[in-house]
Every structure is written in structure tokens, then in C-alpha cells.
Design goal:
heterodimer; A: 188 residues; mainly alpha; 5 helices; 87% helix; B: 164 residues; 7 helices; globular
């Protein structure tokens, strides 16, 4: 297809934007760093799930009745389900990226819906986690006193901070998924 | 092996991918983020590349797919009035046009196109043939022609004919 008229002019104008070889090498290096960060984030999400399970396990150790034990087990299962869902979503996000536009859009729609559900499930599990842990924390503080000593940081303040960070991340994820879904619906 | 193939792809297509990214985002920071996102996606998808399509098709599909997703998630499109032509950056009628500013004006106009039209136009500007664009979009050449004609008319309208 030989370009003519305005196509030719636009083509020349567009292609005049050049990238230096140094910039390309910089891009390769930046991508290497991004890949390392991605790897680290995945390991961190697994570590976060393990820490969450460990805290629930520690609380289960002190559970006083069948209700508390049942709630603790539900929360533990919820954490595992949320972690698995996150892994599946991550894998799905990377899949079909080389597919034709229609197929890719269908995959993105499905992923956005799943991310929305994932965020809501994550909030439910976090709320249940709090319902389960708060009585344990109150009991612990009344016995050992309030403070920032290592045991309390590991069992109370650390998990609280992690939960806060996790909820903030899911809010952001859901907002982006909904924005994308809206755009996809508008474009359809 | 993947690393070698990836480095070669960046050296071969990096420049074009950088231009394609301008078709989806407007700021330098977003441009860099999108470009990196595209390159990471290419690296992740490379082990799945079996040569069913050409390498160029593979790379460009990823670039456009990620571009659409990135733009939709960031929602950083300029709030352009759909019918308003994009202001000509010429400081005065007798002064020479600055290429970079004209290119930015063209990119802004391209960013207002619907996704499939935008993809077709960007590929056309990169010298892809009708059949290559059709293969990449998994559609017929007749469809691509329609998309290109509509895209051109829209660009003409937005650029007010001064770039055409």
C-alpha cells in the first residue's frame, strides 16, 4: 500500500520521532529491573498470606470455644482462597496479551469482573479476620499490657498495618478494574 | 534464551513501540510507564511465541492490547470536545511549524479515535500493509479499509486539514 497525500505527510511526521540506541539499552535495563520487582512482589504476596495464616494460627492456639475455632478456620480458608484468586488473576492478566483485539477485550472484561469480586471477597475476609483477632488482641493487651514490644508488633500492630495496606491495595485495584470495565462497555 | 530474544526485540522494535505508546498516553511519565508495561508483557509472552503469526504481529498486538488497557485504567485521555478541531500550535502564519509540536498534535488527534481505528491508523503510519493490519486485527482487509477511511476522516476533521 503506497502512502499518498495526507497519509504520506502524517507518516513522515510520525516516523520522524526517533529513539537513540542508548535509550533502547536503557529500556532493556529498566525492563530487567521491572521484572525483578515483579518477581519480588509475587514473593511478597505469598509471604503476606503466610504471615496472615501464622497470625490466625497463633490466635487459634488461644481460642477459647468452638465458635472461635470455627471462625478462625473460616478466616484461614478465606485467606487461602484470596491468595489463590490473586494468583489466578495475575496469571490471567498475563495470558492472551498477544491475542487479537476482540479476544483480548473479552479476556480483560472477564478479568475486571473477577478483580471486582476478588476485592469484595478480600474485604469480607479482612472483616472476618478483624472479628476473629480483635477479641484475642484485647485479651492479650489486658494480660501483657499495651505497648510496642516485639511480640505485640508481630501479633497486633504489624498485622493491622498489613491489613490496612491490603485493603488500600484492593480499593485501588477495584477502582481501576471498574474504570477499565466502564471504558470497555462504552467502547462496545 | 528468552533474554537474548527479548533484547533483540527491544533493539528491533523499541523505536516503533515508543511511537505506538504515544498513541495511547500523553505525558512523558505515562509514556515511559506504558512502554515498560508493554516490554514486560512481551517478555512474559515470549515463551508462548510459537511463530503462528509473524514476530512483528506478535509484538504489535501486545503493544496495542497493553496500550488500550493502560489508557482505560489510567483514564488520562485529554478531555477533548469530540467535534472541536485540535488547536493548531503555529505561533503565527509566517513562522515555520515545529515538527515536535505538530507530531504531538497528530498524536492527540489519534488518541481520540476508537481503539480499533486507532490501532489501524497507528499501524498504517508505521508502514503496515492492509493485509498485515487485517492479520493483526483478525479481520478482513475490507474492514481495515473502512477503519482507515473513518480514522483518516476523523483526523482530517480534528486537524482542520492543516496537516493534511
Amino acid at each position: 500500500m503506497k502512502p499518498t497525500g495526507e497519509w504520506l505527510e502524517w507518516e513522515q511526521l510520525w516516523r520522524a520521532d526517533r529513539t537513540s540506541p542508548e535509550r533502547l539499552e536503557e529500556l532493556i535495563e529498566r525492563t530487567r529491573r521491572a521484572r525483578r520487582s515483579l518477581w519480588l512482589v509475587r514473593r511478597l504476596s505469598t509471604a503476606l498470606a503466610v504471615v496472615a495464616l501464622a497470625v490466625v494460627g497463633a490466635a487459634l492456639w488461644h481460642a477459647g470455644n468452638v465458635f472461635e475455632i470455627s471462625l478462625g478456620l473460616v478466616v484461614a480458608c478465606g485467606i487461602v482462597v484470596v491468595w489463590v484468586m490473586d494468583r489466578v488473576n495475575q496469571r490471567q492478566a498475563a495470558a492472551k496479551v498477544e491475542a487479537p483485539p476482540e479476544e483480548y477485550v473479552a479476556m480483560r472484561r472477564a478479568l475486571c469482573v473477577r478483580q471486582d469480586r476478588f476485592a469484595r471477597l478480600a474485604w469480607i475476609v479482612t472483616a472476618l479476620d478483624l472479628v476473629f483477632l480483635v477479641p484475642w488482641w484485647i485479651g492479650g493487651i489486658s494480660v501483657h499490657g499495651a505497648g510496642f514490644h516485639l511480640a505485640q508488633v508481630l501479633t497486633v500492630w504489624g498485622p493491622l498495618a498489613l491489613m490496612g495496606g491490603f485493603v488500600w491495595w484492593t480499593i485501588r485495584l477495584r477502582r481501576r478494574a471498574r474504570a477499565e470495565l466502564e471504558q470497555l462497555v462504552e467502547a462496545a | 534464551m528468552t533474554n537474548i530474544a527479548f533484547d533483540r526485540i527491544v533493539r528491533t522494535y523499541g523505536e516503533v513501540l515508543s511511537r505506538v505508546a504515544w498513541g495511547y498516553v500523553d505525558g512523558a511519565a505515562d509514556h515511559d510507564d506504558l512502554l515498560q508495561d508493554i516490554l514486560v508483557a512481551i517478555w512474559q509472552a515470549l515463551p508462548r511465541f510459537r511463530g503462528d503469526a509473524s514476530e512483528r504481529t506478535f509484538v504489535f498486538r501486545i503493544a496495542h492490547n497493553r496500550g488500550c488497557t493502560f489508557a482505560a485504567r489510567r483514564r488520562h485521555h485529554e478531555p477533548l470536545n469530540d467535534d472541536a478541531p485540535i488547536a493548531d500550535p503555529r505561533p503565527g502564519p509566517d513562522e515555520a511549524l515545529d515538527d515536535a509540536r505538530r507530531r504531538e498534535r497528530l498524536a492527540r488527534a489519534i488518541r481520540t479515535l476508537p481503539d480499533v481505528q486507532r490501532q489501524a491508523v497507528l499501524l498504517r503510519l508505521e508502514g503496515f500493509s492492509l493485509s498485515e493490519i487485517a492479520a493483526l486485527q483478525a479481520t478482513s482487509e475490507a474492514n481495515v479499509s473502512v477503519r482507515l477511511t473513518r480514522g483518516r476522516d476523523r483526523l482530517r476533521e480534528l486537524l482542520g486539514g492543516s496537516d493534511g
